[in-house]
Amino acid sequence: xxxxxxxxxxxxxxxxxxxxxxxxxxxxxxxxxxxxxxxxxxxxxxxxxxxxxxxxxxxxxxxxxxxxxxxxxxxxxxxxxxxxxxxxxxxxxxxxxxxxxxxxxxxxxxxxxxxxxxxxxxxxxxxxxxxxxxxxxxxxxxxxxxxxxxxxxxxxxxxxxxxxxxxxxxxxxxxxxxxxxxxxxxxxxxxxxxxxxxxxxxxxxxxxxxxxxxxxxxxxxxxxxxxxxxxxxxxxxxxxxxxxxxxxxxxxxxxxxxxxxxxxxxxxxxxxxxxxxxxxxxxxxxxxxxxxxxxxxxxxxxxxxxx
Length: 307
Description:
Elements: H1 2-19, E1 25-30, H2 34-46, E2 49-57, E3 62-69, E4 71-78, H3 84-97, E5 100-105, H4 112-116, H5 121-140, E6 150-152, H6 157-160, H7 167-173, H8 185-194, H9 220-236, E7 247-252, E8 256-261, H10 266-276, H11 278-284, E9 291-296
Parallel strand pairs: 1-4, 1-6, 4-5, 8-9
Antiparallel strand pairs: 2-3, 7-8
């Protein structure tokens, strides 16, 4: 596995070097998840100082050197859909990588398509994110038309096979590149572990909007409600420090809640949640339709329709 991981990282670095802009900023749409963290680490590693040497006097062979620095920055979009603990993780991982991180406020919540949450919310969200990245670039380089900017994300090969990921269309619209385009999720984790990224084995943590069933509006109140409920569940199950286990609180139509956990933990955790008073607690949090179910975690379980 070690040899395989080394080969994976070498191939990723080679591919990344073909994508970067040598004379301009390279911006990574960054969340602190393992995919975008690996992308940030690869781009940061490759964007080193490039030195070119030119002979200016053929008689005595004097040489002058021109040094160009290629830069990289990780850009974290801040919105009600990004939980506080994820922002803190993103800051910590960026510091570990050594890459500069910029936080920008995104305005997807102003888009009625995003709020409606009827199948195109991810497209609207990613469009807002990449628009914000472009705005950062244009402001910083308003007086330099020669600068070539490359936007990156952490989309892997498995992501591209998922038809529900309409945010990928937005990435294509903005010509966003990914160093992980030909890399599976398993290979991403192997490479991240090889590079000693602290979140290599963290469970996936998509945005809070993904917890809302189709047609449940992506309002600030709903997103805050989900964040508070998940924080309470983590405390009740003593999961605050267990980064490898999956847990979601889903909001269904009729203000009903569903808690999802890894299948092997459902039975024991259901008993713990009931003992901790989950039904009454969720009612106080605004889930007036009650707790519908504690069930096995499935990624994208409510991406299509509300049931």
